[in-house]
Write a sequence for this structure.
């Protein structure tokens, strides 16, 4: 997004009018996800794309009208099966595209959203794309700050709820409130992965996580193992007990995944206690089924309930028949990504077992 916005800013700085097209809705397959942007300048400049090339021409025509003074518009396009194959899809679909003048200097909410994205912050820009107050914007920042209004207190409250939900699940979506359609455009920093246990799998896991756009951190209170040179792709290696380490890393939020690997009950349990007291998005633990059953008993004895235990994926990872460290890391990150994208059903191995259901 930033590359497209920076291009639009450069055109605006030289005095050009600029329009911004944003994919706000997708049905079936489509080349680009919601939140994808294309900037159009009055001199014919274009940055970004909203499809695989099949609707850009039509969007540019509408953008030119809007730059000449027409109202912002919500467009819908069907992508035929033939067009879908041309852009690498298996079937056609429908995309909805919101086109408006790009004026961050005029809209405080839009300007604040761009600043938030550029700084790597978390937040959501809610725009009315259908209904009264068309084009009104409300920015909800991850820290609770707000900029702008949608013209109705009830609508502001609904937008706040949608923004709070989606900014942590890190999805941009079109939401409806009666006759009003709201597009919730989310920006978020790269997700964090806390790997507890500086074991051999941790290095491979950190490398894979980094390649997927995550920020991996390795934590282990044993200084002998927690050597930074062993984990070249880790953002940081912290030698401290879980509570101290997680606090040093900025705490555990709703976008943080935690995988526990040490196989040492006193260390694993300490990490799981901290994780279960947090809002972590994913908690996984390595170990055999018998080890999971023993851990289950210890956690219950420590005062955690069945609902708490249900948050732990154990043994962690998809059942891919892993034999090597790389394949094991792949199985773990596969489950983390599946959970983050809401794709848990049917993916996880029945044989793997969950800690709350593992036999004694």
């Amino acid at each position: 997004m930033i590359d497209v916005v920076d291009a639009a800013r450069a055109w605006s700085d030289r005095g050009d009018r600029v329009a911004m097209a944003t994919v706000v809705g997708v049905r079936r397959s489509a080349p680009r996800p919601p939140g994808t942007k294309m900037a159009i300048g009055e001199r014919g400049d274009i940055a970004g794309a909203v499809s695989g090339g099949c609707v850009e021409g039509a969007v540019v025509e509408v953008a030119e009208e809007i730059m000449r003074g027409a109202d912002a518009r919500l467009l819908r396009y069907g992508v035929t099966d033939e067009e879908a194959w041309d852009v690498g899809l298996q079937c056609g679909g429908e995309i909805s595209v919101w086109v408006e003048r790009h004026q961050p200097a005029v809209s405080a909410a839009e300007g604040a959203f761009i600043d938030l994205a550029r700084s790597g912050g978390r937040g959501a820009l809610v725009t009315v794309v259908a209904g009264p107050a068309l084009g009104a914007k409300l920015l909800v920042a991850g820290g609770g700050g707000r900029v702008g209004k949608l013209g109705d207190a009830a609508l502001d409250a609904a937008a706040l709820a949608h923004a709070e939900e989606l900014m942590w699940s890190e999805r941009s979506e079109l939401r409806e409130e009666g006759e009003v359609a709201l597009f919730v455009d989310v920006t978020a920093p790269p997700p964090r992965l806390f790997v507890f246990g500086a074991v051999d799998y941790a290095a491979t896991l950190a490398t894979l996580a980094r390649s997927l756009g995550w920020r991996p951190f390795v934590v282990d209170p044993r200084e002998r193992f927690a050597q930074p040179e062993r984990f070249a792709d880790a953002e940081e290696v912290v030698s401290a007990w879980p509570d101290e380490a997680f606090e040093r890393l900025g705490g555990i939020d709703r976008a943080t995944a935690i995988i526990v690997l040490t196989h040492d009950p006193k260390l694993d349990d300490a990490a799981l206690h901290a994780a279960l007291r947090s809002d972590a998005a994913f908690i996984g633990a390595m170990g055999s089924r018998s080890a999971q059953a023993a851990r289950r008993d210890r956690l219950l004895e420590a005062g955690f309930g069945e609902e708490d235990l249900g948050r732990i994926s154990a043994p962690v990872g998809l059942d891919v028949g892993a034999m090597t460290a790389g394949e094991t890391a792949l199985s773990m990150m596969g489950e983390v990504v599946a959970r983050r994208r809401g794709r848990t059903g049917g993916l996880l191995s029945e044989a793997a077992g969950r800690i709350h259901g593992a036999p004694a």
Observations:
- The first helix runs from residue 2 to 13.
